[in-house]
Amino acid sequence: MEDRGGRLFTFMGEMEEALSAIFKTYGKFTLYAHEEKAGRAAHERNKRVREWMNERGLRFLEYPVNEKNSGRKSQERWNELRQSEPVRSPEQIRAPEDFPASFNMGADKLGYFSVSGDAIRFGQQGGEQQAVETLETFLQERFQSYEENGSNLLQSTVSSSRLSPYLAWGNISFRTVVQKTSIKIENCDNLFLVKQLTSFQERLKERWKLMEQGNILESAHNSFKKDDLFLRWFNGETGIPMIDAAMNCLHKTGWIPSKYRGVLVSFAVNTLSLNVQMCSDALASLFLDYEPVIHVHQIHKMSQKVQDPVKIGKKEDSDGVFIKRYLPSLSNVPSKHIHEPWHYPGFFHLDYQAPAVDVKKANQAARKSRSGTAARSAKASDHEQLKFDL
Ligand SMILES: Cc1cc2nc3c(=O)[nH]c(=O)nc-3n(C[C@H](O)[C@H](O)[C@H](O)COP(=O)(O)OP(=O)(O)OC[C@H]3O[C@@H](n4cnc5c(N)ncnc54)[C@H](O)[C@@H]3O)c2cc1C
């Protein structure tokens, strides 16, 4: 932008304050933005901005993220997205010399903006360059075992595209990803490789369709009591290795394959009977790729399924390599017991907690409750835990 005469200004505060400062400095102006689908807070802020602009007779142009209401069929719109030329960057940008005193030049000051929560220490690094490199390495090589390793806890960290945080944060445009993938498919004559790429493209299309569905607002923000069971789940201390390892992986890296996101949700909502909204918010705070529209949709879908993390763990991480990586206290437990360490004779010498719940019994109750045949106990109780055959 700077090469073409542009300048970047940043402002920290409420939108109306920024707009007032602009109005005071320049007089009448038009506000351009992309339509935003980012949950309740952003929705309400945008409503306030529209009102603020209207009251002053100023134009607010929000470009639609999709053309859902254009009257054209979905496939037609998708084909256009795959083929249309990107809009060309302007040769020159005319930036004003003066700017409001409350504005900052550049983005450096944003580094001082304080956010709550723990830092994700081993997560992907942000930035356009990283996003482009991630796409390039995926399309050059990493995609080759995309399908085979899709739900492999360790391999998928490499063979999955890992583009989700970049797409969520806007480090790379969705159109670029779709178009580069289409070009790769067109130029590839190996059927097996085409299958991997097509499968990846299906995921992109899934995203596109969901984003087209419009604003999915989270339910009103309630403050739920974060009881002991919730904290054990959130902190990866449930005593169920598959859940605890997946949670620790999320705390450290901010990413885990889709299948295990579903397992975490199902376990929390069905097995532990935790509040779905509270769990959704908690996971949103851990996902580096948090995208409200996708997130809310997936949480809803996955909370309907009752899943057994012990069974899934035995199938997908039979030797417990993933578990041992994220739960070092279990590193000496033999593979035979890694998914149910409470059956391991040396369990009491391990620095690992007893399971918070009897998964089978709690899941049976959840299934019954889902099918409406019996009332489910409100919470997985201590009583259930004590009945465990340790
Ligand atoms: C409970 C739950 C919550 C989720 N929350 C999010 C979220 O907040 N943000 C998010 O981007 N994804 C979310 N997903 C979808 C999925 O887990 C991630 O998109 C995926 O793991 C990202 O890794 P990747 O980029 O390597 O995916 P790839 O498999 O390489 O897929 C490429 C892209 O397609 C999109 N995509 C992939 N899977 C899905 C899907 N099931 N639905 C919609 N789009 C998809 C993503 O943008 C992804 O980057 C969630 C899934 C579940 C089960």
TrEMBL record:
Signal peptide: none
InterPro entries: Crypto/Photolyase_FAD-like_sf, Crypto/Photolyase_N_sf, Cryptochr/Photolyase_FAD-bd, Cryptochrome/DNA_photolyase_1, DNA_photolyase_N, Rossmann-like_a/b/a_fold
Cofactor mode of binding and number, as noted: Binds 1 FAD per subunit.
Domain Photolyase/cryptochrome alpha/beta: 1-68
GO MF term set: deoxyribodipyrimidine photo-lyase activity; DNA binding; FAD binding
Keyword Flavoprotein appears in the UniProt entry: yes
Biased composition (Basic and acidic residues): 71-85, 379-390
Origin superkingdom: Bacteria
Keywords: FAD, Flavoprotein, Lyase
Name of the protein described by the UniProt record: Deoxyribodipyrimidine photo-lyase
Region entry Disordered, spans: 71-91, 366-390
Gene3D superfamilies in the cross-refs: 1.25.40.80, DNA Cyclobutane Dipyrimidine Photolyase, subunit A, domain 3, HUPs
Cofactor(s) annotated in UniProt: FAD
GO CC aspect terms: cytoplasm
